[in-house]
Amino acid sequence: MEPDKTQEEKTDLSVPSDAKPILVQTGLASWYGPPYHNRKSSNGEVYDMNAMTAAHRTLPLGSLVRVVNVKTGSSAIVRITDRGPFIGTRIIDLSLAAAKKVDLVRAGVSQVRVEVLRTPVPMEQGGRWAVQIGAFAEEQPATSLADRISRRYHTAKVLHFGSPVGDWWVRVRVLGDDRARAEEVARDTKTPEGAVFLVRLD
Hints:
By secondary structure, the protein is α+β, with helices and mostly antiparallel strands. The protein has helices at residues 7-10, 96-101, 139-152, 179-188; strands at 23-31, 53-55, 64-69, 75-82, 90-94, 109-118, 129-136, 157-162, 168-173, 195-200. The chain has a six-stranded mixed barrel with strand order 1-5-2-4-3-6. It has a four-stranded antiparallel beta sheet with strand order 8-9-7-10. Strand 3 (64-69) and strand 4 (75-82) form a beta hairpin. It is globular.
């Protein structure tokens, strides 16, 4: 039986200085703090806004990425522990600590380069996939959409839930959490309220 890993080992962010990125994305980064602090992240850990973590919609949980502020050149290495951001064209949501390191706090949103340095599992294989739809200002439209999707996709598990900031979301888990099926639901789902996002659950 393996000994339990220490917290330091679990949050090891060290990578070789000459590590070549597996994938590079460029887009908008934002940060999330107090409303989510001390709440459970997607990987089961409690979110600590003072740790070097981030949320991404599709990278495997536990991936290590370098985030570089395109304007200032400031960078930070973070671990993907959560899912998001679920706003428009943003590609990554940083913890407060990471946002400070890349000069993002005051601006709120900045153009960044995300360099994927290490993933615990292959990015393009397997995975458990779902569709997330929101944010709804009221619970009723979220409930109505969840009901419509449940009737249309009989094999899908559909739930709606509130967020710490008071909006409502719908999550659709298709049979087998299959990526192709989830992409089909994302493509075919239209709603005047809220955007539709493909999200990896693991």
